[in-house]
Amino acid sequence: MLNYTYIFYYTEMNLHSYQDLKVWQFGIDLAVLVYQLTQAFPKQETYGLSSQIQRAVVSVTSNIAEGAARDSTKEFLHFLSITLGSLAELETQLILAQRLSYVSEQDLQILLSRTSEIGRMVRGLQKSLKAKLYPPVTSH
After folding, report:
1. For position 46, what pLDDT does the model report?
2. DSSP labels, 32-85
């Protein structure tokens, strides 16, 4: 059973770096949960599914960070798109782990709700960045 009571906090602060983004903070919290979960996987999965799941969850926050550190909004959008792909990959691997009885149905649902929440946040950030990049044209 996952210990997720301390997870998914909000930090009120000015945005000075990718670490100030709530979506990045939620992604880090998700990574902690996933690492806790995969520690209980069978030994034979150390270099298999466990490793794949860990790489996918790390990719989520890594791509947010890399995109935010880039010089352009367009590049940030590109990395947010990759983030969504990593989330889908992670969800698929978690579902497989549950079907192999490595993850309980309850833990799977907790994790899938977190990936869904992060996905919504990423899509919201994309929408905001696209509005900045492509402001609406007004006629006079």
Report:
1. 86
2. HHHHHHHTTS-GGGTTTHHHHHHHHHHHHHHHHHHHHHSS-HHHHHHHHHHHHH
Beta-carbon-side half-sphere exposure of residue 73 (alpha carbons within 13 Å): 11
| pLDDT at residue 122 tops 60 | yes
Give Cα separations from 73 to 26, 45, 69, 70, 131 (angstroms). 21, 39, 10, 8, 10
pLDDT at 6 over 50: no
Quick: pLDDT tens for 22-62: 999 999 999 999 999 999 999 998 889 999 999 999 999 99
Name which of 104, 92, 97, 121 is nearest 25 in CA terms. 121
Nearest partner of 39 among 105, 107, 123, 140, judged by Cα: 107
Question: How far apart, in whole angstroms, are the C-alpha atoms of residue 3 and residue 92?
Answer: 22
Residue 27 has a pLDDT of: 97
CA distance 131 to 99: 41
User: How far is it, in rounded angstroms, from Cα 129 to Cα 115?
Assistant: 21
